[in-house]
Design goal:
The structure holds 2 protein chains of 2 kinds.
Chain A: H1 9-29, H2 32-40, H3 51-75, H4 78-83, H5 86-105, H6 114-131, H7 135-140, H8 142-169, H9 180-190, H10 195-202, H11 209-239, H12 246-279, H13 288-305, H14 310-328, H15 331-360, H16 370-395, H17 405-413, H18 419-426, H19 436-464, H20 477-497, H21 502-521, H22 524-528, H23 532-555, H24 580-589
Helix pairs in contact in A: 1-3, 1-5, 3-5, 3-15, 5-15, 5-19, 6-13, 6-14, 6-15, 6-18, 8-9, 8-11, 8-16, 9-11, 10-11, 11-12, 11-14, 12-13, 12-14, 13-14, 13-15, 16-17, 16-19, 18-19, 23-24
Chain B: H1 7-10, H2 14-20, H3 26-39, H4 49-53, H5 56-59, H6 64-71, H7 81-88, H8 96-101, H9 113-124, E1 131-133, H10 134-144, H11 151-165, E2 172-174, H12 175-181, H13 187-190
Antiparallel strand pairs in B: 1-2
The chains are: A mainly alpha, B mainly alpha.
Chain lengths: 590, 197
């Protein structure tokens, strides 16, 4: 088919579907009548219309279907998706759908509820992030990430809250029923960088891995800070401003450590359990993948139950269990886990953004205050930039790889807010926080601005600033082997020069892991074959084999392998380009 | 540990050392000198192989012996402070400003990318013939791949590694081929430690 954007039949189908969906709420309203009619019907009904019977799961399934169809729709036009991030398109779609529902029903029937978000939509995304986290990169930059996540978020929350309060005192915002604590509460929920939004936007931009891991790691680890600040200020608001004592403040600080370390600990415990369980699943290969999801989800729920940081729990569960689970489960289970996780995460992300759009179309929640909205946008951008610059200046004295100005620009600009802030603001109690609607409206505007506007402009910005991009290339045996040698060399040099550095710590951990952890958590057969150099060698051999077979199919037989010209050939690549379908089918057999 | 006055005066040949090793800072030299003296337990004023071998973590490092050997070039038995610094200076982080201001007539600083690679190269090239033969690659592999691997597998891996890098087909990896095979790798970062900034 031609690559031009062809309106007409495809869009017509989508539009019809949307209109049909708009009819559904009306069907809900008529559930009374069939019941009444049935009561008076005589005899046996062969077929009945039991809408109320299937209503809830049907609507859920339909929304998932609409979201997925929308994704297909977006990718029909390659030009659009290469410029506009998918998340922005989904929000716009949500706005359109919300409008249709509103027009049909005159009330906003659907919205993103905090329960659904926190219990069903967020965990898959965070688990996917943790399970596929590049551990070495993450722990190598952990100091930087922690600084931004903790100090950065506190800085953002405090400065934004206090500045807004200052402006309020000056009278610019008009007459509002707010106090200082309300502003600080709002600051704490709008300050946090959102992992879902960062993933959605940065995935399409491909900045270099260090930059990505710092922004993304920050968005994951700042959950503890957000949770603590939110709970602390909410309880302060409930108590009333004058009853807050110094003891409460100290308790707040203590709770930060408890929440963050406790959440991490819960995650690690469940990772341990998960790795241990997968050691014994040799005879139940079919349900192996299930353990990964169930135990990780339980870590999330357990942490939530103990009022610790659930995001940290599930993140660290994924991070810690990766190595052992991947070694223990079979190849097919590993593939199943990988694709299921990706599917759940991607699906959840799609639904989140679409419902953010839908939830915005609700006349009841809107309260507009120009000064508040504009100033919030201004303050979060400016204070984030200032915070990033200050912290980077401190960090560069201790980092091996300096963070340049360009990196700092991307980090400031990539501080996106998303659905977590929305869910938190909807959770507020309007009896305690009188201006809840103002906060909700402003949060929605902020999220839309960061996701749509910043999402749209970050790609051109990255290209204009010539940010170092990530390089995807095949693993070379030389790089792996010599890379290993460099690690050993650096460890030795660190020992000789008396410096305790990353390599020293990594070596210590590696030894501890080899002597104790792997013996407990990994299957005996897996312990032997887990060397990375061997894995790369194995992969390269497989690739060569596939190339030989494909060439053999082209030539009719594999007899050419015995000819002297193919002696000592590595990384073979016969001149004719291989169709990808051939490779896919052969690798499946292997 | 003795008085700390007039530090620079007690480090022999400070200025020529600093020039030679690419302007390591005064503070770093001070730290290294303290470390040198701490390693020199018997107070001889130089280090022997035994002094270095007594560093616990070094004993379990697969390349530990070879690295110790690189401190004692040409069969010497004594390591003085300048020699100590000269080897460690390879691991100073590369400063971009240095590269710009450098006088092209002066020899390359020890911590340049090429010199870092040369240091790694001579750990493999035991017979110093300027090439890593298949046999030398095999020996290095045997040290580093720690799990139970059969000898045939090790030989295959060594073969393949050499073939991947070997461009002129002589069955060995010269220094330039070695450098080329690692051109995409961030050597400046992978072979640097902070203490020498």
């Amino acid at each position: 088919m031609s690559g031009r954007w062809a309106p007409g039949p495809r869009w017509g189908v989508l539009l019809a579907l949307l209109l049909a969906l708009g009819e559904l709420p009306r069907a809900r309203g008529v559930e009374e009548e069939p019941g009444g009619a049935h009561g008076e019907a005589q005899g046996f009904q062969v077929v009945t219309f039991e809408w109320h019977h299937v209503q809830d799961p049907y609507i859920i399934a339909l929304w998932i279907l609409v979201a997925s169809l929308a994704k297909i729709g977006f990718h029909l036009s390659h030009k659009v998706t290469s410029v506009v991030p998918e998340s922005a398109l989904l929000i716009v779609l949500g706005l359109v759908l919300g409008g249709i529902v509103l027009a049909a029903d005159h009330i906003a029937s659907f919205s993103l509820t905090p329960t659904v978000f926190f219990f069903y939509l967020l965990p898959p995304i965070v688990l996917d992030a943790g399970y596929f986290m590049p551990n070495r990169l993450f722990f190598g930059n952990l100091g930087t990430i922690l600084l931004y996540a903790v100090i950065g978020t506190v800085w953002n929350a405090a400065t934004t809250g206090l500045s807004l309060y200052g402006v309020f005192l000056s009278g610019l915002m008009g007459d509002l029923n707010i106090g200082l604590l309300d502003f600080l509460l709002f600051g704490s929920l709008i300050a946090a960088v959102d992992p879902v939004a960062v993933l959605a936007v940065f995935e399409e931009v491909h900045v270099n891995e260090v930059l990505f891991i710092i922004v993304f790691g920050e968005s994951l680890l700042n959950d503890a800070v957000t949770v603590v600040l939110y709970n602390v200020f909410e309880s302060f608001v409930t108590l009333g401003g004058d009853k807050v004592t110094g003891v409460d403040c100290v308790k707040g600080i203590v709770s930060f450590f408890v929440v963050s370390l406790g959440g991490t600990l819960v995650g690690i415990v469940f990772a341990f359990l998960l790795s241990l369980v997968t050691r014994f699943t040799k005879h139940v290969r079919i349900i192996e993948p299930g353990f990964v999801f169930v135990l990780s989800y339980l870590s999330y729920l357990t942490s939530e139950m103990l009022s610790l940081s659930a995001i940290l729990a599930i993140t660290f569960c994924g991070i810690c269990c990766q190595k052992y689970v991947k070694a223990n489960i079979s190849e097919q289970s590993a593939t199943t886990v990988r694709y299921t996780m990706k599917m759940l995460a991607s699906g959840a992300e799609t639904i989140i953004f679409m419902f953010l759009g839908i939830s915005a179309v609700d006349p009841l929640i809107w309260k507009w205050n120009t000064a508040f909205v504009l100033l919030t946008l201004l303050f979060i951008s400016v204070y984030r930039a200032i915070g990033v610059v200050l912290q980077t200046w401190i960090l560069n004295r201790y980092r091996m790889v300096q963070l340049e100005i360009i990196d700092q620009v991307v980090m400031s600009y990539g501080g996106l807010r998303g659905a977590v802030a929305y869910a938190l603001v909807v959770l507020l109690d309007e009896n305690k926080v009188k201006e809840k609607n103002l906060f909700v409206s402003t949060t929605i505007i902020v999220i839309f601005f960061t996701v749509i506007f910043q999402g749209l402009t970050i790609k051109p910005l990255v290209q204009w600033l010539k940010v170092k991009r990530s390089e995807q290339r095949d693993p070379k045996l030389n790089e792996k082997l010599h890379g290993r040698a460099f690690d050993h060399i650096l460890s030795a040099i660190e020992d000789i020069s008396g410096q305790i550095g990353h390599n020293y710590l990594r070596d210590k951990w590696s030894n501890f892991d080899r002597k104790f952890l792997s013996k407990i958590l990994m299957r005996r057969s897996a312990q032997k074959s887990r060397d990375r150099i061997l894995n790369v060698f194995h992969e390269l051999n497989l690739k060569d084999a596939i190339s030989y077979v494909a060439e053999g199919e082209r030539r009719g037989s594999l007899a050419f392998i015995r000819s002297p010209s193919t002696d000592n050939m590595v990384n073979v690549d016969f001149s004719t380009p291989r169709p990808s379908t051939v490779e896919a089918s052969v690798s499946y057999l292997l | 540990m003795g008085s700390r006055s007039s530090h620079a005066a007690r480090i022999p040949d400070v200025d020529s050392l600093r020039r030679e090793t690419g302007s390591v800072s005064q503070a770093s030299l001070r730290r290294l000198y303290d470390r040198f003296q701490a390693l020199d337990r018997t107070g001889k004023g130089y280090l022997s192989r035994l002094d270095l071998q007594q560093i616990g973590a070094l004993a379990v490092n697969p390349l530990g012996d070879r690295i110790i050997d690189s401190f004692f070039p040409d069969g010497s038995l004594r390591l003085d402070f300048p020699g100590f610094v000269r080897v460690l200076a390879h691991f100073r982080p590369v400063d971009e400003e240095d590269e710009g201001n450098r006088d092209p007539k002066e020899p390359e600083p020890l911590n340049s990318r090429m010199n870092k690679l040369r240091f790694a190269f001579q750990l493999y090239d035991l017979d110093r013939d300027g090439k890593i033969s298949r046999h030398e690659m095999l020996q290095a592999l045997r040290l580093m791949v720690g799990v139970q691997v059969t000898e045939e597998q090790l030989e295959s891996i060594a073969d393949r590694t050499v073939q991947e890098a070997d461009e002129d087909g002589d069955g060995a990896v010269s220094f330039l081929e070695f450098a080329k095979s690692l051109e995409k790798m961030n050597i400046e970062q992978k072979m640097s430690i902070r203490i020498l900034k």
